Amino acid sequence: IMFTLDAYTFDASEWETKATSGMYNYYLQLKGFSSNLSSVVKNNSIISVRTVRFAVGSGDQNYPYLIRHEEDMRILSLVSQEDSLEGLYFKVMDGVKTLDLSNPELGFLPIGPSFKHFKGHFDGNGVNIILQMNRSTSDYIGLFGYIENSTIKNLHIEGQIDGRDYVGVIGAAVKSQINEVFVNTVVNGRS
User: Fold this and answer.
1) Distance set, CA 186 to CA 115, 134, 160, 163 (Å)
2) What's residue 52's pLDDT?
3) 3-class SS at 86?
4) pLDDT attached to residue 11
5) Side-chain half-sphere of 128: how many Cα atoms within 13 Å?
6) What local confidence, expressed as pLDDT, does residue 9 receive?
7) In the chain, what is the straight-line distance between the N-terminal and C-terminal CA atoms, in Å?
8) Which of 8, 39, 162, 189 has its Cα between 20 and 30 A from that of 50?
9) Cα–Cα dist 191/178, whole Å
10) What is the pLDDT of residue 1?
């Protein structure tokens, strides 16, 4: 049996939107599901309308989330404010030579703030990252603010990073590996 939607009008009052949160964007959701009395229906409904904010990859070691451009780095920095991204893998896509994160309008934040350590893995794939961070009254300032049980590798950093304490390409690191990270950056701070 086939059916068509030709005669059906989509009434906005029947749909609900959910704001982007953490790792996910959300499609429109029918209110009949989103406000259902059954928690199983509600939960399954929200899972069915969400999509990961990274367009390519699954986040595992063999198929990492790919960083294609500055916007993907911004998304990673924003997501890391809410989620430690524990055990997830990120890699700059082949062919990307430079990621310029120096424009303040981009809204890039250190990946892994002091209150939500980054616990993922980042492979820069040889990319050159340009930073210009002027946060002289803030701590844990750098490309990465605070990492734990992480691997950061294969990248070049240039620019200037100004902060108060725990300032550098990586503000603080616990039980982490940092390999093939080359720095040509002016760093100002107390530690």
Assistant:
1) 25, 11, 5, 11
2) 85
3) coil
4) 76
5) 7
6) 66
7) 70
8) 8
9) 19
10) 47
Q: Are 64 and 56 contacting, i.e. CB atoms less than 8 angstroms apart?
A: no
What are the tokens at 53? 């904010």
Q: Which residues have CB under 8 Å from 148's CB, separation 6+? A: 84, 112, 117, 118, 119, 173, 174, 175, 176
Instruction: Please give the biggest Cα pair distance in the chain.
Output: 71
Q: What is the pLDDT of residues 23-51, one digit of tens each?
A: 888 888 888 888 899 999 988 988 888 88
Contact (CB, 8 A) for 84 and 117: yes
Mean pLDDT computed over every residue of the chain: 91
CB 68 within 8 A of CB 55: yes
Place of tokens 């701590």: 139
Q: Give the whole-angstrom CA distance, residue 106 versus residue 84.
A: 21
Instruction: Residue 183: name the closest of 129, 109, 111, 117 by CA.
Output: 129
Q: Retrieve residue 177's tokens.
A: 């590996």
**DSSP-assigned letters across all residues of 113-162:** -TTS-B-SEEEEEEEEEEEEEE-TT-SSBSSEEEEES-EEEEEEEEEEEE
Overall pTM > 0.90: no
Beta strands in 20-119 (DSSP E): 24-26, 29-30, 50-52, 65-67, 89-92, 98-100
Q: What is the pLDDT of residue 12?
A: 78
Q: Residue 65's closest CA among 84, 89, 83?
A: 89
